[in-house]
UniProtKB/TrEMBL annotation:
<dbReference type="InterPro" id="IPR006103">
    <property type="entry name" value="Glyco_hydro_2_cat"/>
</dbReference>
<feature type="domain" description="Glycoside hydrolase family 2 immunoglobulin-like beta-sandwich">
    <location>
        <begin position="218"/>
        <end position="340"/>
    </location>
</feature>
<dbReference type="InterPro" id="IPR008979">
    <property type="entry name" value="Galactose-bd-like_sf"/>
</dbReference>
<dbReference type="Pfam" id="PF02836">
    <property type="entry name" value="Glyco_hydro_2_C"/>
</dbReference>
<dbReference type="InterPro" id="IPR017853">
    <property type="entry name" value="GH"/>
</dbReference>
<feature type="domain" description="Glycoside hydrolase family 2 catalytic">
    <location>
        <begin position="343"/>
        <end position="571"/>
    </location>
</feature>
<dbReference type="InterPro" id="IPR051913">
    <property type="entry name" value="GH2_Domain-Containing"/>
</dbReference>
<comment type="similarity">
    <text>Belongs to the glycosyl hydrolase 2 family.</text>
</comment>
<dbReference type="InterPro" id="IPR006102">
    <property type="entry name" value="Ig-like_GH2"/>
</dbReference>
<dbReference type="Pfam" id="PF00703">
    <property type="entry name" value="Glyco_hydro_2"/>
</dbReference>
<protein>
    <submittedName>
        <fullName>Sugar-binding domain-containing protein</fullName>
    </submittedName>
</protein>
Length: 954
């Protein structure tokens, strides 16, 4: 990283005069047929009707491009292609009204070459200097002409394009840039560096655009290698010489400390901290091929390290003074670094020798307003602040590398980054098969490390995401090559796979609570709820840290109120389709309720996912997918935040940070449901990855639903909690009888350290009356025979019709958890639902406390159960308990439906109400349900025919 890489020569020309800002108006011409070079637009000028655009920017964002149609040449896989054939999507395939369901849709689309042209005035003082054109971020390949002269091309997706224009005569010159956003190299159609799934396949130049006049001898690269133990840094300076020949010179290095609260950060170097060192270039002096100098820079015994708790930074200035051919040349380069070392201790990652726990989420290049990533620091400060407020400490940039501004913001905040090459070599692409992507990956890796390697926030790197081909042998070499080249961070072969002995850490899809293809057999769907599960077997199975790959992927329902936020290039036409489907199903008035209910279940699952990782001693960490929504791949609404990093209304940062942060109390509970005559027993574990050990009091309390305390107790007093997650206390026993039940209660564990910090976490539990046989009132008939139910209800009876899963013939996969990723991209993987919406004040739940959203007491009832399709029933009928269907289908579903039939009344249940054995929640709901049916409150508003009831068996 070089900040202000070429400062002015002392006592000569002001710095601004060595640089020209090229932002502003450029003429632009689209060239989809590729005729511009043949017609020599660089010499003859762009066509006469060429419009004016502003750079930095993209052509699409400024309205240049084609309307989206069925033949739009998208970049990205479409797994569910029913959009192109299904009658349901026919209205969205009409010319002029095309709307796609699988990602955000740009207002206009363009793929091909775009030409940008303007005149530039070269100052007289630039004579004798090389002129460098710098384009901060280009999508994708740039080709440059000065007048009629072809300068060359660049093709980086990760770093600035820098082209040497040579020595330009003072005066006016025509500068022409052609940018082509077609696939230069097959990096994979779904790579987030190029794909329409996320940022979109934009065309243009964003960030800084400039011309810089450089001296004959320049500092070409500065690498800073910190040494925490020695409180020093090795400064490695590369010097480039031009064609003027050899000479002699001196390198001076100095540093100042900043970004430390309480320290003066402005003014003279000496106002804060300064170190300086000078070194002659040596007897050989400076040759025409350049030179290299290593400088040991002591930072002092009081030097501060950089980490997530105190991100002290140092600004480094390298001054080069040379004498070439009797002329003095002066160049100054600046960079920022931190006294930081990242390493591995057994199966955990260390920062400056202290164990840490990676709590990351993905950033997948999702920027709906512009369709391209921001290059200003403030935008990234916002994203990082939101992540930190939710207790996270790392962003993983999935198959792309962010601009400089993201690293700067992360440095300031003490936030970690896993950057990746712009590659997802899968879905037709592959590594290790001698395709062009192999060489391109090596090019891009070098560029990334050279451009951003000094940033202390840059702690981890993968080649990209989930490779295909002969990936293992190819990436083993990739890891060893780049770790040798730049050992300042940890390397892994790929995000997802392969797990190689060469890796510093494994970023693999195991372990996690729900994996691809597990469906209803995943842990949260297939096993009764508890909070003891961890991943100790995985930790014991390998010698390196594991950072779980893309855990979570729990969906919430689309937030249809979010549509108004999309005021830029990318439009949520997919949300319009989903809203139409919901209206066709007669449920448009339930959109907000679906969002809230599914969102609370999503949060519940993320909490258990994260806590299971934190419970695992020696575990390395996790990457969420994700804290924010992913708008592509079929529309994956997996975040508690929307694509703008804003709350969707059902979760807060404070609530999330209770179970995700540097210090998290954990309760290891064998179950979630208890009876009033039982002690609630559990162990307490503290996952503490703070700045150092703490001394703390650990306590528990039990609260009722109104927050009133039912009981409390001490777990430990004045206990020392070291850094790590191996601290355990217990067993702890909450006395029986604090509530007679039925009640929903909250167990709270508090860790209060002697310095005044307080950490709390909580778990909802259910306490029911002691087990007793559930008797059926004489006034209620319970049957699973539909014919009997219809006959008896028609004659005036009160009936509970219990339908088993084997009686219901639809293909809706009902699970406890919400859908994983989304049903379109996973080809219908189970579950298809997103929780069960219900009114907690409905009298059927009088003896079954619930909140209106799916919580752990519903697990027994939903496990193995089946949803009923209600689309053939009267539109006014709303089920008592309503599973929320995937938004791609929006079917009206029910698991509890009440109605009048003839002279009688009926409740139809497809829940598993079997009261036998240890099924406490099922027994309690059955008791509450029968009490309701036998009482005066049971007065259904809607009437069903026998044929309606039979339709539930489809």
């Amino acid at each position: 990283m070089l900040l202000d890489p070429h400062a002015p020569e002392t006592g000569t020309t002001p710095e601004a005069d060595w640089s020209l800002d090229l932002s502003g108006e450029w003429r632009c011409a689209l060239d989809p047929e590729g005729v511009g070079e043949l017609d020599q637009w660089f010499r003859r000028g762009l066509p006469g009707d060429a419009p004016t655009v502003r750079l930095p920017g993209s052509v699409q964002h400024q309205g240049l491009g084609d309307p989206v149609g069925l033949d739009t040449p998208w970049t990205g896989s479409i797994v569910d292609r029913s959009y192109f054939t299904d009658d349901r999507y026919a209205p969205y395939r009409e010319p002029g009204a095309v709307a796609v369901p699988f990602w955000l849709q740009p207002r206009v689309y363009y793929r091909g070459a775009a030409w940008f042209q303007r005149e530039v005035e070269i100052p007289a003082g630039w004579a004798g200097r090389d002129v460098i054109l710098s384009l901060e971020r280009v999508h994708w390949e740039s080709t440059v002409w000065v007048g009629e002269r072809l300068v060359g091309s660049e093709r980086s997706l990760t770093t600035a394009h820098r082209l040497d224009l040579g020595r330009l005569a003072p005066g006016r010159h025509v500068l022409t840039i052609r940018v082509d956003n077609r696939a230069v190299v097959d990096v994979g159609p779904n790579a987030h560096s190029v794909s329409d799934h996320t940022q979109g396949n934009w065309n243009g130049v964003v960030g800084a655009l400039s011309l810089t006049a450089t001296p004959a001898v320049t500092v070409s690269r500065v690498r800073v290698v910190p040494d925490v133990a020695a409180r020093s840094a090795l400064v490695k300076v590369d010097i480039a010489a031009g064609s003027d020949g050899a000479g002699a010179g001196t390198v001076r290095v100095r540093a100042r400390r900043f970004n430390v609260p309480g320290e003066h950060e402005a003014g003279p170097v000496s106002a804060a901290f300064a170190a300086e060192y000078s070194r002659d270039l040596g007897e050989r002096g400076l040759t025409s091929s350049g030179a290299h100098v290593d400088v040991e820079l002591p930072l002092g015994d009081d030097a501060l390290t950089w980490d997530e708790f105190r991100p002290a930074l140092y600004e480094l200035t390298v001054e080069l003074v040379t004498d070439v051919g009797g002329h003095e040349h002066r160049d100054v380069a600046r960079t920022v670094f931190g006294l930081r070392e990242v390493g591995v201790e057994g199966t955990q990652v260390t920062i400056n020798g202290r164990r840490t726990f990676v709590r990351g989420t993905l950033e997948s290049c999702v920027f709906p307003l512009t369709g391209y990533p921001p290059t200003d620091v403030d935008a990234w400060r916002h994203v990082i602040a939101v992540c930190q407020a939710h207790g996270l400490n790392l962003l993983r940039f999935h198959s792309w590398c962010p601009p400089e501004a993201a690293f700067v913001a992360a440095d300031e905040a003490g936030f970690y980054i896993q950057a990746e090459g712009p590659v997802w070599a899968n879905q037709g692409a592959a590594l290790g098969e001698s395709r062009p992507v192999d060489a391109y990956l090596y090019e891009e890796t070098r560029r990334i490390l050279d451009a951003y390697g000094n940033h202390p926030s840059f702690v981890m790197m993968a080649h990209g995401n989930e490779p295909g081909g002969r990936d293992a042998e190819f990436l083993a070499s990739w890891v060893t090559t780049w770790r040798t080249y730049d050992p300042r961070r940890l390397y892994t072969s790929g995000a997802g796979w392969p797990a190689l002995v060469e890796n510093d850490f494994d970023n693999i899809p195991d372990p996690r609570a729900h994996r691809w293809g597990e469906g209803l057999d995943s842990r949260l769907n297939g096993r009764p709820p508890e909070t003891r599960s961890d991943y100790r077997e995985w930790v014991g199975s390998r010698p390196r840290p594991i950072v779980s790959h893309e855990i979570g992927q729990w969906c919430a329902y689309p937030d249809l109120g979010e549509v108004s936020r999309y005021t830029g290039l990318l439009q949520p036409k997919n949300f319009g389709i989903f809203a139409d489907f919901l209206e066709q199903g007669g449920m448009s008035d339930q959109a907000a309720a679906f969002l809230h209910a599914s969102g609370r279940l999503q949060l519940l699952c993320y909490k258990e996912d994260i806590e299971a990782a934190l419970r695992t001693e020696g575990f390395g960490g996790f990457h969420l997918l994700g804290l924010s929504d992913f708008p592509g791949q079929g529309t994956a609404l997996v975040g508690v935040l929307n694509p703008f990093w804003e709350s969707k209304g059902y979760s807060t940062a404070d609530e999330f940070a209770r179970f995700c942060g540097p210090t998290v109390p954990l309760a290891r509970l064998p179950r979630r449901v208890w009876t009033a005559d039982q002690e609630i027993d559990f162990d307490v574990q503290v996952a503490h990855f703070g700045a150092g050990p703490i001394d703390a009091d650990v306590t528990w309390s039990l609260l009722d639903q109104d927050g009133a305390e039912l009981g409390s107790g001490s777990v430990a007093r004045g206990a020392t909690v070291p850094v790590g997650n191996g601290t355990r206390f217990g067993p702890v026993r909450v006395p029986a009888g604090l509530t007679a039940g039925p009640a929903q209660v909250t167990l709270v564990v508090t860790v209060a350290d002697t310095a005044g910090a307080r950490y709390e976490n909580d778990w909802d539990l259910w306490v029911y009356p002691a087990a007793a046989e559930v008797t059926t009132p004489a006034s209620v008939l319970v049957t699973s025979d539909v014919g009997e139910a219809v006959e008896r209800a028609g004659a005036g009876a009160t009936v509970l019709l219990e339908l088993g899963a084997e009686q219901i013939g639809n293909d809706v996969a009902l699970g406890f958890t919400p859908a994983f990723w989304n049903t379109a991209w996973t080809k219908g993987q189970a579950p298809h639902t997103l929780g069960v919406l219900h009114d907690p004040q409905h009298p059927v739940f009088r003896h079954f406390p619930t909140t209106g959203t799916t919580d752990w007491q519903w697990w027994e009832l939903l496990h193995g159960a089946k949803a009923m399709l209600l689309d053939g029933l009267p539109t006014g009928l709303r089920p008592v308990a309503q599973p929320i269907d995937t938004w791609f289908e929006a079917r009206r579903l029910g698991v509890l439906v009440e109605a009048r039939v003839g002279a009688g009344r009926i409740m139809v249940s497809s829940l598993d109400l079997d009261p036998s054995g240890d099924r406490r929640a099922a027994r309690q709901l059955r008791r509450s349900l029968l009490d309701y049916l036998a009482g005066d409150d049971f007065s259904p508003a809607e009437t069903l025919t026998p044929e309606d009831l039979l339709s539930l068996l489809r």
